[in-house]
Specification:
The protein is of the alpha/beta class and 284 residues long. It is built from ten helices and twelve strands. 35% of the residues are buried.
Amino acid sequence: MAEPSGVSEIGYWSEIKLDILTQYASAYSTILSKQKNPTLRHVYIDAFSGAGFHVKKADGNLVWGSPTSVLLIDPPFREYHLIDLDRGNIEVLEEQVKSRTKGPYDPNDVYCYNGDCNKVLLTDVFPRVRYDKYVRGLCLLDPFGLHLDWSVVQTAGNMKSIEIFLNFPIMDINRNVLRRDPTQIDVIQSNRMTRFWGDESWRNSAYSSEGDLFGNEEKTTNQALAKSFKERLVSAAGFAYVPDPIAMRNSKGAVLYYLFFAAQRPVAEKIVRDIFNKHRDRRS
């Protein structure tokens, strides 16, 4: 059995993210399980699943990760698709799946993939979530940095059958991509950003000469860049409803990433907006 890359430590805001996900996933599964005429088959997708558990920085205790937290929700999803690049993580997940009780928690409905989610999602998972086949999906896209292709986001939006939670990694962007002088951006890093954003329009969103008497371009704020990405989820990816994201912070209060949600139904936006608003002013 391969060894996992290591159990990750998580802080206060990562626990909040897991709380947000499980609250919405529970509501989502409850609503879709009751759907009749037509009956819908709903699935959960975790693109960066990890080993299924973490260690809390505060006290060293173990806490369930996103895939295992959702696996415990009742009523259950009809299928679960868990993806990770690390073979060890997938093997640990598979062992946890085997330990689940038969019946409402059927391990045969769990599919584990050891591979790059940017490929696996488009070739193996998303084709199973077709709108015309009455399948709906909730997908967590939670990379540690700029490790996601825009084609995944755009495909999910165009399919009209998939809702997403998405990590917009603003700290990675600020540390590794953006420079005070936009002409000094490293080519490799700019390519990473373009891959995540989908095209070069991120440069116009990240820099502005407005307000500068000499026409010099300056970095925009984190909030302005996140707002532009929100608009892009609607205009370029085709999601109908995208509430304002929630900022996830480190112990010093710096924003690590923005957690976005995007969907096609107004009721989904309302539920998530209410959940987000409960957590926006929390402090570690």
